[in-house]
Amino acid sequence: MPRYALLxxxxxxxxxxxxxxxxxxxxxxVLEEAAAPLNGGATPATTAAGRTDAGVHAEGQVVLIxxxxxxxxxxxxxxxNFHSRPHPVSVLGAARAPxxxxxxxxxxxxxxxxxxxxxPARPALMLGHAWHxxxxxxxxxxxxxxxxxxxxxxxxxxxxxxxxxxxxxxTLDRLDVSRHGELxxxxxxARSFLHHQVRNIVGTLLAVGQGRRPVSWPRAVLEGRxxxxxxxxAPAEGLCFLFSRYAEALDWR
Length: 253
Hints:
By secondary structure, this protein is α+β, with helices and mostly antiparallel strands. The chain has 2 domains: 3-105, 2-Layer Sandwich (Alpha-Beta Plaits); 109-242, Alpha-Beta Plaits (2-Layer Sandwich). The protein is built from 5 helices and 10 strands. Strands 1, 2, 3, 4, 5, 6, 7, 8, 9 and 10 form a 10-stranded mixed beta sheet that branches. The protein is globular and about 60 Å long. Substrate binds at residue 112. One of its GO terms (biological process) is tRNA pseudouridine synthesis. It catalyses: uridine(38/39/40) in tRNA = pseudouridine(38/39/40) in tRNA. Residues 8-105, 145-246 form the Pseudouridine synthase I TruA alpha/beta domain.
């Protein structure tokens, strides 16, 4: 069967997450149902690079789909965008997938951005796309604290209680905090992340930015391996899946 890679963006607000669930509409369901008319009415299976949670957005989710029909990638892109309306899901590109390629297991690295709206006034245009924190944050302190989390560590203190990963060892390749006017952005990259790892790190760094904890605290939490000692889990709405990187470039159409 022809195999295709899809580059997908979506607003996660109305969805229960990427993965199909019985309690609501998922991004996976929207894409698979949009593809059914191109697959003789049968719903094809899809696999994603990142299984985003409810309310989490994506600018560059990568998806594998297998169809019975052999279609030009640009036609597949256009057809999926037509059949997925009016949901806030857009296929930015489609490509023929290399043999043996898997968006999840072939990934060499994934990137996320977390956005904080740091101003007194509540959001209007960014509602649902940023964590509103009214009081000024010390971004330099947050960035300095973040550097203590880089490298390969046991991130038990920053994983969700329900995380199903076999172990908590992960290598954090990037964790930068920067200000852009009223926006504070946390960008991070790793080969893979634990469930809620990014959001738990952001909640912990926030306490540093608010002056409630010292710059050394996030590292001390990491070394303690106790989730109850870390900061709050940042809201899903500020998180966005940016990209998944592969050894072989995909020919997006």
